[in-house]
Here is the input.
Amino acid sequence: MRGFTLLELLIVIGIIIVLLGVTIAALNPARQMRQAVTATRWANVSAIANAVAQKIINDGGSWVCADCPATTTSVRISSNACNLCSCLVPDYLGSLPSDPAAGSPAGQVTNCGSSYDTFYDISWSTTTPGAYPRVTVTAAQDTSISVTR
Here is the structure.
């Protein structure tokens, strides 16, 4: 009779299990997901800071937005605190980015009239009109992610 012995089959199955374990450990999906979320946060914080800086430049060096007045203390970018969406969308951003893990709605805010919370914070270096304030945008879920323009 031709065929494999039980020992040969067990050895092949053992080798496959070891290779599968090494592959899963090398890929580490949880680590990959954390890195993707971090990269998205960096991109979102940069996009918001760039849009605010561009608006300040276009407004002659002052931050002009009734729904989100400049403050030197950090304030949440949301429909309840600093409604930045109404100031930047659609002129400076196609949609307002929100945190990929905690933001509501997840991903992008396209309807500025609806309730939202980006889980990003914003502050200005000065509130003096015409002083070209520096703006800082920080990810609330990871304060090491911060961009100043």
The longest helix spans residues 29-58. Residues 51 and 93 are 7 Å apart (CA to CA). The chain has one domain: 6-148.
